[in-house]
Amino acid sequence: MRFAMPLSRDDAFNVARVLSEALPYIQQFVGKTIVVKYGGNAMTEEALKNSFARDMVMLKLIGINPIVVHGGGPQIGDLLEKLKIESHFVNGMRVTNSEAMDVVEMVLGGLVNKDIVNLINQNGGHAMGLTGKDGHLIEARKLKVTQQTPEMQKPEIIDIGHVGEVAHINTSVLSMLTESDIIPVIAPIGVDDKGESYNINADLVAGKVAEAVKAEKLLLLTNIEGLKDKEGHILTGLTTTQVDDLIADGTIYGGMLPKIKCALDAVKAGVNTAHIIDGRVRHCTMLEIFTDEGVGTLITNQDD
Ligand SMILES: Nc1ncnc2c1ncn2[C@@H]1O[C@H](COP(=O)(O)OP(=O)(O)O)[C@@H](O)[C@H]1O
Ligand SMILES: CC(=O)N[C@@H](CCC(=O)OP(=O)(O)O)C(=O)O
């Protein structure tokens, strides 16, 4: 007895070809760790969320260790609005009073984190959710922010509440998980030595986690095709010196600034490559890791 083939011969050949072309990349990255920052803006559609979860499960099965750090800015904004708690941003950071901090912790550590964990598990993986409090993963300190308005003579340090930066990443809990079949999913909430909670920009946490675990790659998923020049062309293969020049001439601004800065810090600290990629493209992480073309902006630390 014979069963009908679900794919035509050409389609089946293409599947085999694509898998075969991925072989050198699989050989290069097996056993390595890849940190993936999954931003709130890339989490809007169910199909996208599902393709992201499948990619994480596939990486782990192949023998690559993904560590997910997620954002959730739009989701926090929605709940703050429903609860009528005022929220605004300074230098790309959400001003976070005690009331807003409770909401940040509920949304990031609860809803968003468990949604991603659940999706990965539904797709056959084993994910475990953590905030920076679990296993004392993210030691934080209060972020000092300076601001200068036209009325001010010189920049002043302003208080933006429970907003933190990473003081230290305790990798022991992550090693335990990555050495097993578990995919860690990290919410960007830190804690200081007095037990105070801090809301930390997810790009910053992803960069510091990548540095601490000596990741092979840092992938930053966002809501744009990549880093663009003034004419709108996607830039890739950038060195740290070229990025410094683009910041100096104003081509890189706003939300892209912390993203680029953490990508640069990560490659300067030894992460091999950082990639800013379009999280609105299905299977963008697989495309970036397993194809020559990739789907975004590559940053390396090779300045020669
Ligand atoms: N040179 C640039 N190339 C691309 N985007 C840029 C650039 N400079 C600033 N941006 C802005 O940065 C945004 C991405 O940052 P952000 O919205 O904070 O991302 P996320 O929410 O994914 O962390 C882009 O949507 C764009 O508006
Ligand atoms: C201090 C600060 O701004 N924290 C962010 C944390 C979430 C985040 O970074 O989410 P995205 O990656 O989706 O933007 C916030 O409150 O929105």
TrEMBL record:
Q: Where in the cell is it found?
A: Cytoplasm
Q: Return the SUPFAM superfamilies for the record.
A: Carbamate kinase-like (SSF53633)
GO terms for MF? acetylglutamate kinase activity; ATP binding
* Positions annotated to bind substrate: 72-73, 94, 199
Main localisation, per the record?
cytoplasm
Q: What pathway or pathways are given for this protein in its record? A: Amino-acid biosynthesis; L-arginine biosynthesis; N(2)-acetyl-L-ornithine from L-glutamate: step 2/4
Query: Any idea which UniProt keywords this protein has?
Result: Amino-acid biosynthesis, Arginine biosynthesis, ATP-binding, Cytoplasm, Kinase, Nucleotide-binding, Transferase
Q: Where is this site: Transition state stabilizer?
A: 37, 259
- Please list the GO biological process terms of this entry: L-arginine biosynthetic process via ornithine
Catalyses: N-acetyl-L-glutamate + ATP = N-acetyl-L-glutamyl 5-phosphate + ADP
Q: What does this protein do?
A: Catalyzes the ATP-dependent phosphorylation of N-acetyl-L-glutamate.
Protein family (similarity comment): Belongs to the acetylglutamate kinase family. ArgB subfamily.
Q: What is this protein called?
A: Acetylglutamate kinase
Q: Which organism is it from?
A: Bermanella marisrubri
From which lineage does this chain's organism come? Bacteria, Pseudomonadati, Pseudomonadota, Gammaproteobacteria, Oceanospirillales
